[in-house]
Amino acid sequence: MADREQPVTLRTRKFIRNPLLGRKQMVVYVFNSPLQPSTIALFPLSNPDVLHPSRPNVSKDELRAKLAELYKANKDTVSVFGFRTQYGGGKSTGFALIYDSNEAMKKFEPHYRLVRYGQATKIEKASRQQRRFLSYPLVMVVRGMSVGSGVGNFGRGEGRE
Question: Are strands 8-18 and 50-51 parallel, antiparallel or unpaired?
Fold first, then answer.
């Protein structure tokens, strides 16, 4: 049997409606279920566990789809993160946010999570070390050192005044 066909139970706990941030937030538990293989059992507002005894873990995309179905929301407004599989496997715990609208999600959700869900583009920039070395001549001029003199060797721990 393929992994996606294995039964999984999804429970939510500590459900809170947060109107200031325009979202519902909850702890989610995922675990394998002794139920029929083609179903994912959904138990809202009870013990939040994801049980998956015959699967290594459950994909976040699958969890987003099932939570959207359970709470009658759009999959694009559901954010899941922080999942940890219990030692021995078969049970995972994480956190879920269901926003009221795409605008609320884009306003309050961190940019890196929006990039994960395909709602924003990643900002490409040079590595931190490359950006640091680009600023060396400017720093030396500000400190009164000449760039080509070799005096100071700024940033390498030797020859500082």
Answer: antiparallel
